[in-house]
Amino acid sequence: MGDKMKKEKTKAIIGGAVLLAAVAGALWYCAQPEEKEPEFVFSYAENQAEDYPTTLGAKRFAELVEERTDGRIRILVQAEGKMGSEMEVIQQMQYGGIDFARVSLSQLAVYIPELNVLQMPYLYEDSEHMWKVLDGDIGAEFLTGVGDNGLIGLSWYDAGARNFYNSKQPITCLEDVAGMRIRVQESELMADMVEALGATAVPLGYAEVYSSLERGLVDGAENNWPSYESMNHYEVAQYYTVDEHTRVPEMQICSEYTWEKLSEEDRAIIRVCAMESALYERELWTEREETSRSIVASHGTEIVELSAEERKRFQTAVMGVYEKYCGDYMDIIDEIIATGEN
After folding, report:
1. What is the mean pLDDT of residues 153-158?
2. Comparing C-alpha atoms, which of 65, 263, 252 is closest to residue 143?
3. How far is it, in rounded angstroms, from Cα 224 to Cα 291?
């Protein structure tokens, strides 16, 4: 066989192979199920970092909803405060501008004062006590209660216990707090609590805390272990006192405008997914707390455990806050306390 014939035969073989590959590719493509366009694409606002337990919980929630609705409902989680501060998010949700969110009870209580009952200082004995309350009838009633404000309560997320930290000195007794300028959330209750302890409350947005501590505009702040660690506040406030003055749970919520678009079946799916994501988030939270405490300790944070006697003094100092915010709800306060004793 001549060289010319060999070349032509090789070309024919190669051409046939290419054609067969193209046909096979086309047949494979046609055999793939066509990806359905979702019926709904919803937004979800989260102000924490991408790897934070509440953000990961939100992402699990979105995955579960998409999976169990066969892709009909897609929820896009926007973390790191991209959709605004928690207060701004709540306002937008009341007008249907944002569909879902995870927000602190402190922010919600600005619109729903009754929620202050669940975050009174030194109310819970420990984490187990709080979850006994929130997973019971009291918690269920409060989830339902936000519906009067254009919001739908879905589930409770963990945010641990809040503690004081500062750049001046270890806080070992009530006198050590006196005169300090302490950053608080934009919450009147939190400001009143700090003032009752003898400090000056300075309401600031979460993103402003590091620079304010660094520049000496505030002496300290109060927050949980993961927030203290993840925002690097330990670099500018090396004294951390474990007093667990408040356990402020967080709530997954849905805009009522969004809720009205959904069928009863989809609403049921979303509620179940919200509860499952909450249990997942709580597990992550426990792990993250331990990790965060270990990280800041390795960077030189001086950790003080407030004694039971001093904690009692702190608790007595804030009794006026109970009178101001819970005068009409002391029966619920008594019920919460009794839940911890049973």
Report:
1. 97
2. 252
3. 12
Task: Give the up-direction half-sphere exposure of residue 1: CA atoms within 13 A in the CB hemisphere.
Answer: 7
Residue type, 322: Y
Distances from the Cα of 46 to the Cα of 56, 177, 253, 266, 306, angstroms: 10, 32, 11, 22, 32
pLDDT in tens, 222-269: 999 999 998 999 999 999 999 999 998 999 999 999 999 999 999 999
CA distance 276 to 256: 21
Is the separation of the CB atoms in 117 and 61 below 8 Å? no
Q: Which of 119, 161, 117 is nearest to 333 (CA)?
A: 117
Q: Which residues does residue 254 pair with via DSSP β-bridges, in sequence order?
A: 100, 152
Which among 244, 240, 114, 131 is positioned nearest to 189, based on CA atoms? 114
Beta strands at 151-157 and 250-255: parallel, antiparallel or unpaired: antiparallel
* Per-residue b or e along 234-268, where b marks 16 or more CB atoms closer than 10 Å to that residue's CB: bebbbbbbbbbbbbbbbbbbbbbebbeebeeebee
Token digits of residue 193: 């609590």
Which tokens hold the place of 323?
């009178």
Whole-prediction pTM: 0.80
What's the pLDDT at 286? Answer: 94
- Number of Cβ atoms within 10 Å of the Cβ of 63: 14
258-274 pLDDT, tens digit each? 999 999 999 999 999 99
Give 61: exposed, middle or buried? Use CB within 10 Å, 0-12, 13-18, 19+: buried
CB 202 within 8 A of CB 134: no
Among 168, 161, 206, smallest CA distance to 187 is for 206
**DSSP secondary structure letter of residue 72:** S
Residue with tokens 């700090």: 194
Residues 277, 283: contact at Cβ < 8 Å? no
**CA-derived radius of gyration, the chain:** 27
